[in-house]
């Protein structure tokens, strides 16, 4: 009798030992997203919808268009539809505590997705990336590029707790140099709703007030980086002033490849979205979530947290991290 080739044995073995994909036929899960105006949130939705379909989950999606009161109303509607779990990415971190309260009273489990809901004394889970680490990667990078000079420090939306974490992480590296007098921070501003147009206006103001003498820009994400770079470009400074980013959006990756944006931070939302559906199924089934003991404080109590690792992306590793992983297509990134 002929022996089967090793490759066939390996394939057969993988089918025998691979655990079955957890199914949740017909289980209703609610998903509340803050916006679809940013590429990364579009990808989150697509990933979760695909994963839910694969696992037989009835996923009900609402998008709040950066409106906190609208998000509350939409979540009330989801709750009334008999969902078992709510995956909530809050627009306003503090006011979203009302949603936690309403869900809890209805016996619905909540996953605070990517952005932490603040000020709630109730039980829920937090699923995100290590956002303090994101800021640390940005701060370490920009200070290694410019250890002395004039800085513009931009932060994300003041209603988003992540924005505060990113800034806190970055300032671990920037503040000591500022305290020494090596760095002069000429602007330190949050950017309303993460809007690129707002970042552009702030950058224009900083350039005007300092006669274009800006040596480095801490931008919290690719959208705000894009707005700031437009202001720099108008003064012939795009590519000459180091600037950070985050989210590995296509537009940001293109700028990194072209040299106008110095870096971005990759948070693989494919993994985050899949993990959200996995966690929601487990919660619907009454299974415990393994957080490895990690928690994040929400101003009231430590929240059990699942935190994924972010990755810094520069021109040097862009192909390996973003293209070869299939996250972005090479032809799109290196378009002419």
Protein model, in words:
It is a single chain. The chain is of the alpha/beta class. Helices cover 44% and strands 18% of the residues. It contains 12 helices and 12 strands. The protein has helices at residues 6-17, 39-54, 68-80, 97-105, 131-145, 161-180, 196-209, 222-234, 250-258, 269-284, 318-323, 330-333; strands spanning 28-33, 58-63, 85-88, 109-113, 125-129, 149-155, 183-190, 216-218, 264-266, 295-297, 302-308, 311-313. It has a 7-stranded mixed sheet with strand order 2-1-3-4-5-11-10, with helices on both faces. A 3-stranded parallel sheet has the order 7-6-8, sandwiched between helices. Helix 4 (97-105) links the parallel strand 3 (85-88) and strand 4. The radius of gyration is 22 Å and the shape is globular. The termini are far apart. Residues 1-19 have low confidence and may be disordered.
Q: How widely separated are the two ends?
A: 58 Å
Query: What is the average of the pLDDT values?
Result: 93
Q: Which value, in Å, is the CA radius of gyration?
A: 22 Å
Q: Spell the H/E element sequence.
A: HEHEHEHEEHEHEHEHHEHEEEHH
Brief digest:
The chain is of the alpha/beta class. The chain has helices at residues 6-17, 39-54, 68-80, 97-105, 131-145, 161-180, 196-209, 222-234, 250-258, 269-284, 318-323, 330-333, and strands at residues 28-33, 58-63, 85-88, 109-113, 125-129, 149-155, 183-190, 216-218, 264-266, 295-297, 302-308, 311-313.
């Amino acid at each position: 009798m002929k022996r089967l080739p090793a490759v066939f044995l390996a394939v057969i073995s993988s089918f025998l030992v691979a655990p079955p994909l957890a199914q949740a036929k017909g289980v209703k899960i609610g998903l509340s997203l803050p916006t679809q105006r940013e590429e990364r949130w579009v990808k989150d939705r697509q990933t979760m919808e695909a994963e839910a379909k694969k696992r037989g989950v009835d996923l009900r999606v609402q998008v709040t268009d950066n409106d906190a009161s609208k998000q509350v109303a939409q979540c009330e509607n989801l709750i009334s539809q008999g969902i078992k779990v709510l995956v909530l990415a809050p627009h306003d971190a503090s006011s979203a505590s009302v949603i936690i309260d309403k869900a809890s009273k209805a016996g619905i489990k909540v996953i605070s997705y990517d952005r932490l809901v603040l000020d709630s004394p109730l039980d829920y889970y937090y699923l995100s990336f290590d956002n303090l680490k994101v800021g640390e990667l940005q701060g370490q990078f920009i200070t290694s590029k410019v250890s002395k000079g004039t800085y513009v420090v931009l932060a994300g939306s003041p209603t988003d707790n992540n924005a505060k974490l990113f800034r806190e992480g970055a300032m671990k590296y920037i503040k000591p140099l500022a305290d020494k007098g090596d760095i002069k921070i000429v602007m330190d501003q949050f950017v309303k709703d993460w809007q690129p147009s707002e970042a552009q206006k702030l950058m224009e103001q900083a350039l005007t007030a300092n006669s274009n003498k800006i040596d480095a820009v801490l931008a919290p994400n690719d959208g705000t980086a894009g707005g700031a770079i437009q202001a720099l470009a108008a003064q012939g400074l795009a590519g000459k002033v180091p600037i950070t980013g985050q989210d590995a959006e296509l537009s940001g990756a293109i700028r990194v490849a072209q040299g106008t944006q110095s870096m971005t931070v990759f948070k693989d939302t494919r993994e985050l979205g899949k993990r959200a559906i996995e966690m929601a199924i487990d919660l619907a089934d009454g299974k415990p979530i393994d957080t490895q003991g990690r928690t994040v404080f929400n101003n009231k109590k430590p929240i059990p947290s699942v935190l994924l690792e972010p990755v810094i992306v520069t021109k040097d590793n862009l192909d390996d991290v973003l293209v070869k992983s299939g996250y972005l297509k090479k032809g799109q990134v290196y378009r002419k």
